[in-house]
Amino acid sequence: MPSAKDIELRVIPSSIANPFVKKHHYSGKIVHNSSLHFGAFLNGRLHGVMSFGPSLDKRKIQGLVKGTPWNGFIELNRMAFDDVLPRNSESRCISVALRMIKKQAPQIKWVISFADGCSCGDGAIYRASGFVLTGIKENANIAVMPDGTKLHKMTLESSPLRPIRALGGKSYFDITGGSLMAKVPRCGRRPYTARLSASVHQVYRPCI
Q1: Where are the chain's structural domains?
Q2: pLDDT digits (tens, 9 = 90+) for 191-200
Q3: What angle do CA 175, 197, 61 make, to 5 degrees?
């Protein structure tokens, strides 16, 4: 039986990483500013991807570690693995990736990632990899549609005129009367909130 130590981690291009993430990540989406992709290979076949890149709003995150320069941290934007890899594969791959980043990009002093407690747990894999929980924020921007589909406010606002099946064929502006709402409108839907909906994790400086 293979073990996590049999996994080979390689840097791969976005043309390989992104289709895998779309297929295996629970959101089905990529982060477009991801610039560094690691592939987890077992017996020569790709079974996992980790995508790193700058945070969308670096100004809000930079201060988590005092004295961090603008290019001193990076975000683990996406982590997607299939069901083939053995136990502990995720934590081992994260650890190996951090060592590779430390060697090749010494200006990076720490890494941040987010765990979506509404959909995939509270970050146990990150903690097993040496990450430290730095904050928990209730998410009031996710709503559950009548058919069970979960949509984020940013998804709705990015294409406010596009008809959405989960909204009965209506657009976001049809629901809001043509305005960008501060909060997700109810409109027959129920807000989906959870205590661990946006758990922020950050690696101590010595960890990388």
Answers
A1: 4-115, 142-191
A2: 433 322 233 3
A3: 100
Q: By three-state DSSP, how is residue 172 classified?
A: helix
What does the CA dihedral 152, 153, 155, 157 come to, rounded to 10 degrees? 170
Q: Which residues, 6 or more positions from 16, have their beta carbon under 8 angstroms from its beta carbon?
A: 37, 39, 46
What is the pTM (predicted TM-score) of this model? 0.71
Q: Rounded to whole angstroms, how far apart are CA atoms 73 and 53?
A: 9
Question: For residues 133 and 187, what is the distance between their CA atoms, to the nearest angstrom?
Answer: 34
- CATH superfamily ID and name for 4-115: Gcn5-related N-acetyltransferase (GNAT) (3.40.630.30)
Inter-residue contact 25 to 82 (CB < 8 Å): no
Mean pLDDT of 136-153: 69
